[in-house]
Design brief:
Shape of chain B: globular
Shape of chain C: globular
Oligomer: heterotrimer
Number of strands of chain B: 33
Helix content of chain B: 10-25%
Largest sheet of chain B: 6 strands, mixed
Order of helices and strands of chain C: EHEEHEEHEEHHEHEEH
Low-confidence stretches of chain B: 121-125
Strand order of the largest sheet of chain C: 8-1-10-9
Mean pLDDT of chain C: 87
Chain lengths: 192, 827, 261
């Protein structure tokens, strides 16, 4: 998404003010140049949805290169009118955060520390755990209440939890994967 | 929710039973707008919160007594003739006659007819009782239709049973049980019952305040029944305002990341009840209502899961689906009890933090420490990922292998989220995720591809389904094109579909436009039928993603149908047929939403008449009010009417029982707790419960969230801007209790239950007050549950205090009302 | 000279969510600080050099047994007669063409006279930079047609931003409406340009006495209430006083409602 200049002013915080003062020239020599330079002016803009509560506030995400530089409410959103709560207003720190790990981590049994691992190694190892556990514990058939052997194709040794924080498409893929793999402990936050 | 946040502005009274201003501040603007237009706001909450601060009336009620309150309101409406009779007679089952053998707790000492000792039930011996429900049914006429008495006088009609059932819920009884002074209750009853009738409407908001109880589902039913009684469902300014906690609780529920269902609210097959597809469809397809279409949705789902391998000859792959051993298994709480018992070896945890966020979190952590392996996918290094570092744990003793995969937040990926009003909205990827950060979709597809490679060539039946399931969307297999995933969810034609004249309706692979066009013959695939219509595709293959539509609302379309896509079929207010009377005319000009226009062009050129108005009809748009079932708005129910008499496992009417842990005997009946509630026995004293009136645990405790933090805190305690807003974990304590215990504001206090204890600072406040319960003082404290041992803001885990107990219908926890002790200092 | 811009904070609409406080930090890239125990939800206890918006939480039991929880988002008032501006010996503090009061970081010498001159405790000294800091109404935004971050995000429109000559009548109407609804103590604070400090460009609607919100009942310029304790200070004060007078004369138009001088 890109905003035209006209649209840009539509995103002023208050109706009317943008058009009136948007093009004001600076009258005072002492005004610092930095204080009036808008850092998002040349930025790319994408629409997003706030990842916190369920109101679904649309956001405008401003970025330069691979850095997000600002996240604000999307003023056109009919049910939010561009507002955000404190969590929504802090969304940028989900991306730009010194505590955020960007490498995969492995902790061996009994170990007291994490080890950084290549992501390919992680996938191989995780797939192996899934495979081995399924091979060892899969329940193909079971007796029904009449004592007859019936197919159940169930895997009870792996449980899956989450998430109400991921996208619809991701939920669908996870459900499809878990069910196709035989997983029955399949839950997310809606139950708690 | 049945309604829409924008529409709250049209309410005359808003009753918040949850803490909406704090937990949904941006949605709350519509409450404030209604208030500015003259609406009254009632806040029912044990605590005086930021919602109370801007409400007209605050009604403090002891935690765990909502059914007594709602029952009191229903009784008040019935006794004072304040219910909306025309609506109730036309649109609900109030007039239906019930089997004379059925008895309510009024006559059976707090129990419904049909309670049975089951001894052993499900997978756990602790379930001792269930209802057999044999008398919980309508009387039928010769043709099999329910008998009715439209005068509502028959002693066996639902209305008379309802009246008799709630006759015990007097204002005096409400005062004794809830601790709401009678005068205040009557003030609120008058105010809210004022929303009855043609000209007025009111909405009730709720969240986890009502659900997290051992009668959680009955709480919601009680709320809905009150709304039906006052004629508030399906009308502008009315409805049930259900406020979900996460950005995608609604979507994750629709797509059924839940043990008991498949996407689109289709039951997950049970071993004994559903041995094959034919039996499944026969048992689960009702004779009336929209669910008669269930076979189309189920077969289309199987086609979406298993693709071309799903054929008529192999029951569309039905046998590949895992079959549940019991209906009483696999829920969140079952998971951690079974994990603790060693049954579960590997655990995948994505975007959830059960080390902090679930009930009896201490049990959850101990359970996870017994796993062979644990995979955590999250934005931050959660307490769950570091469960081997939990306080009191020696990492050397934890033999669990842990894999942590860093994940991307919404701003770094494409996808859709479904908000609390069923609105599906798209978000765009703005930047590439840093380093080795994976999207969740990328993770699932990559893992699936690796595993499919490992199983490749397997001839075993059990592997066929997994190998048949496709995880390729677009050109890069491990980087799925999310619009193509959404297209599969939406549904598409698996082969060319033509009408009876041979005209091509859909080319092979083309997205289906409406769930009405899904079929049960394998010609359509759809991953979640209720989402059908979110993607449109012309014959040229160009996809139109309606989740990404951004047309703001205006005066002509206040519900903003051009913004996102609300399931089902972009309907913004559910059951909106009820906004017009039986004859199809708006109940009032002021409260009109949709109505029957006999002059409008009909379905075919030779016919006239259509439902028109301000919303997409949640009804057959061409079904005239005087046609058969043209006056029945509740299309998802087999009998097409709103249910006062309902189907839950713990009774057809909500009945007040005390929480499993309570300071008092049940003042309404001799039945103390929900007789069919689920209580797990867990080894090693990990789920001990305080007996009623325990001197060791004399105070009621309720747990909750704050505006500035998010759930278990992973998305807030790790963010400097949010972490700085509270100094530390705290417990809110009344001045009265603080005085009794010699506590001053800022003192450290120890809060304990039979499961665990935490240390927090005391925030001594006027916002909590002791309750007078049946003449005795009962103190209640409040403790938020956001803190844990990782992140910037750290603190003890409140959920270490709560128990592993559940409601019998959906197995939700009871963390809004239980018992604790409070002591000054760290003890 | 442009029309005077103002911020009207209507505390009757405030839900104390602190979105304004966070949006301010986010936009102005202000670092987080160590929180402190204040006994309530409020953090921090006062304005700081890194916290320009501050939501206050005050419990006030009512005579009828009910409780009022007064919630208010506080901010720099951008006073028409600004104590900080008057006190600044270097001219770093200036008034913009919109009537707002800013601190030029390049000119500020860190003397902190402004800190003690603010009747509201708004201006704060930044020990990292050695300069004074405070709210600018998001100077960069308002010079580019965007409202301040706090007003833009406020979920309930408790914070409204616009032209002062439009906001004041709106605020007056709101007071009348609230009084009719029974809020007998509803009042405006700082809206009157003939009132204390020549009116505040961030003015408030309160539901109780100003003191209930930790606001001075009658804010005064510090020159009238600060005890002068050295000859040097007297000299400075005289100098500052003259400067202020000149400054005020020069920019008086900007402080008058609807003035277009």
């Amino acid at each position: 998404m890109s905003l035209s200049r006209r649209e840009f002013f539509r995103h002023a915080g208050s109706a009317g003010v943008g058009a009136a003062v948007g093009v004001a020239t600076l009258g005072l020599e002492r005004v610092e140049a930095a204080a009036t330079t808008l850092r998002i002016k040349e930025a790319k803009v994408h629409t997003s949805v706030c990842p916190y509560c369920s109101v679904g506030c649309n956001q405008l995400v401003y970025s330069k290169g691979d850095s997000i530089i600002d996240i604000e409410g999307h003023p056109d959103t009919p049910h939010t009118l561009g507002k955000l709560c404190p969590k929504g207003a802090a969304t940028i720190q989900l991306s730009n955060n010194p505590l955020r790990p960007t490498k995969a981590l492995y902790r061996a049994p009994g170990s007291e520390k994490w080890e950084e691992k290549p992501i390919e190694w992680m996938y191989d190892q995780i797939a192996k755990r899934y495979y081995d556990t399924r091979e060892k514990h899969f329940i193909e058939q079971e007796k029904d209440k009449e004592g007859k052997d019936v197919p159940v194709n169930r895997l009870e040794a792996i449980a899956s939890l989450g998430s109400a924080c991921i996208d619809n498409e991701e939920c669908y893929l996870l459900t499809k994967f878990n069910r196709a793999f035989g997983i029955v402990y399949h839950e997310h936050q809606a139950r708690v | 929710m049945t309604t829409n946040l924008i529409d709250i502005q049209h309410a005359d009274v808003i009753m918040c039973t949850n803490n909406m201003a704090e937990n949904h501040p941006v949605g709350f603007q519509w409450v404030m707008k209604a208030k500015e237009r003259g609406a009254k706001v009632i806040h029912v909450d044990p605590r005086f919160t930021r919602t109370s601060a801007v409400s007209d009336v605050h009604v403090p009620l002891r935690s765990g007594t909502n059914i007594a309150f709602f029952g009191g309101l229903m009784s008040y409406a019935i006794q004072n003739n304040l219910y909306f009779k025309d609506y109730v007679v036309s649109f609900t089952n109030a007039s239906f006659l019930i089997d004379p053998a059925f008895k309510t707790p009024t006559d059976l000492g707090g129990l419904f007819e049909g309670l049975e000792q089951t001894g052993k039930g499900g997978t756990d011996p602790h379930v001792a009782q269930t209802y057999n429900k044999t008398s919980w049914k309508y009387q039928l006429d010769a043709e099999g239709n329910p008998k009715r008495d439209l005068t509502l006088q028959d002693p066996n009609c639902v209305f008379q049973l309802l009246k008799r059932h709630y006759s015990r819920y007097t204002p005096e009884m409400v005062e004794r049980i809830c601790g709401i002074p009678k005068a205040k209750f009557v003030e609120v009853a008058k105010l809210y019952c004022g929303t009855s009738g043609r000209e007025k409407t009111g909405t009730i908001t709720y969240a986890l305040n009502l659900t997290q109880h051992t009668n959680g589902v009955q709480n919601i039913r009680a709320l809905c029944m009150l709304q039906l009684l006052l004629g508030n469902i399906g009308r502008p300014g009315g409805g049930v305002t259900a406020l979900r906690g996460h950005a995608n609780v609604q979507g994750a529920t629709d797509l059924e990341v839940l043990y008991h269902e498949l996407p689109g609210y289709l039951p997950m097959p049970l071993r004994d009840a559903h041995p094959d597809l034919k039996t499944y469809l026969e048992k689960e397809t009702p004779k009336g209502g929209f669910w008669v279409n269930r076979p189309k949705f189920m077969v289309s789902l199987l086609k979406a899961f298993y693709g071309s391998s799903a054929t008529k000859d192999n029951e569309f792959g039905y046998q590949w689906l895992p079959k549940r051993a019991s209906a009483d298994a696999y829920s969140h709480q079952h998971t951690f009890v079974d994990m603790y018992k060693g049954k579960i070896k590997g655990f995948f945890c994505d975007g959830q933090n059960p080390a902090v966020g679930g009930p009896n979190a201490k049990l959850a952590r101990a359970a996870m420490q017994k796993l062979d392996w644990l995979v955590v996918v999250d934005i931050f290094n959660t307490e769950t990922a570091e469960v081997w570092k939990a306080p009191g744990t020696n990492p050397k003793d934890v033999k669990t292998e842990v894999f942590f995969v860093p994940a991307a937040p919404a701003a770094e990926k494409d996808g859709s989220l479904t908000n609390t009003m069923r609105l599906i909205q798209w978000h765009e990827k703005s930047v590439n995720p840093p380093g080795d950060v994976q999207t969740d979709a990328q993770f699932v597809c990559t893992l699936a591809h690796r595993l499919q490679k490992m199983y490749a060539g397997s001839k075993k039946d059990r592997d066929k389904g997994f190998l048949a399931a496709g995880f390729n969307y677009g050109e890069k297999p491990d980087h799925p094109d999310m619009e193509l995933v959404l297209k599969e969810v939406n549904g598409f034609a698996t082969e060319e579909i033509a009408d009876k004249d041979g005209k091509v309706l859909y080319k092979k692979g083309q997205a289906i436009a409406s769930f009405a066009q899904l079929t049960d013959d394998g010609k359509t695939a759809s991953g979640c039928w209720i989402y059908t219509g979110v993607i449109n595709e012309g014959p040229d293959g160009k996809l139109v993603n309606k989740a990404n539509a951004h047309k703001p609302g205006d005066e002509k379309d206040y519900l903003a149908h051009g913004w996102g896509f609300a399931w089902p079929a972009n309907r913004r207010i559910l059951y909106n047929r009820a906004s017009a009377d039986a004859a199809g005319k708006p109940w009032s000009e002021k409260k009109k939403l949709i109505w029957w226009d006999p002059e409008a062009p009909g379905q075919t050129p030779d016919k006239m008449g259509k439902w028109v108005g301000l919303d997409v009809p949640d009804f057959n748009a061409f079904l005239a009010p005087d046609a058969k079932n043209g006056d029945k708005p509740f299309i998802m129910r087999a009998d097409l009417v709103g249910a006062f008499f309902g189907p839950l496992n713990d009774g057809p009417f909500p009945e007040h029982y005390e929480p499993i842990e309570s300071p008092t005997r049940n003042l309404l009946s001799k039945q103390q707790n929900n007789p069919v509630a689920k209580i797990w026995s867990v080894p090693d004293k990990r789920n001990d419960l305080a007996p009623m009136g325990s001197k060791d645990y004399p105070y009621v405790i309720t747990t909750y969230r704050l505006t500035e933090h998010h759930l278990s805190g992973v998305m807030s305690r790790y963010l400097p801007m949010l972490a700085e807003l509270f100094e530390s974990h705290f417990a809110e304590i009344s001045h009265e209790l603080a005085k009794e215990l010699g506590i001053v504001n800022g003192d450290k206090v120890t809060v304990s239950t039979p499961r665990g204890k935490i240390v927090a600072k005391a925030m001594v406040t006027h916002r909590l007050k002791p309750f007078m319960i049946d003449g005795k003082t009962v103190h209640e404290i409040g403790v938020p549950w956001h803190w844990g041992y990782n992140g910037i803001a750290k603190g003890d885990i409140t959920n270490d205090l709560s128990a592993t107990v559940a409601d019998p219908t959906v197995y939700i926890q009871e963390t809004k009302a239980f018992m604790c002790n409070v002591k000054k200092g760290e003890v | 000279m442009a029309r005077t811009l103002a911020m009207f904070t209507d505390t009757s609409l405030c839900i104390g969510c602190r979105a304004c406080q966070v949006a301010c930090k986010q936009w102005n890239e202000l670092p987080a600080e160590q929180p402190e125990w204040t006994g309530s939800y409020q953090n921090h206890a006062t304005f700081t050099d890194k916290t320009y918006r501050l939501v206050r939480f005050m419990e006030k039991p009512q005579p009828n047994g009910e409780l009022a929880w007064l919630l208010m988002s506080d901010v720099c008032k951008h006073c028409a007669q600004a104590g900080c501006l008057d006190a600044c010996p270097t001219g770093a503090i200036y008034r913009t063409e919109f009537g707002t009061v800013n601190i030029n970081q390049d000119v500020c010498n860190g003397c902190r006279y402004c800190v003690s001159s603010c009747p509201f405790g708004v201006v704060s000294f930044n020990h990292d930079t050695g300069r004074a800091n405070k709210c600018t109404f998001c100077n960069d935004r308002i010079h580019n047609g965007l409202g301040p971050a706090c007003a833009k995000t406020c979920p309930t429109d408790s914070i409204q931003f616009g032209f002062r000559d439009e906001l004041v009548p709106k605020a007056q109407k709101r007071v009348a409406a609230l009084k009719e609804l029974g809020y007998k103590d509803a009042q405006l604070y700082g809206a009157d340009s003939n009132g204390p400090l020549g009116g505040l460009n961030a003015f408030f609607l309160l539901l109780d006495r100003p003191a209930a919100y930790a606001l001075p009942e009658k804010p005064l310029l510090p020159q009238r209430n600060v005890k002068v304790d050295s000859l040097l200070a007297v000299g400075s004060a005289l100098l500052v006083g003259v400067g202020a007078l000149v400054a005020f004369r020069e920019r008086g138009g900007a402080t008058k409602d609807g003035g277009n001088a």
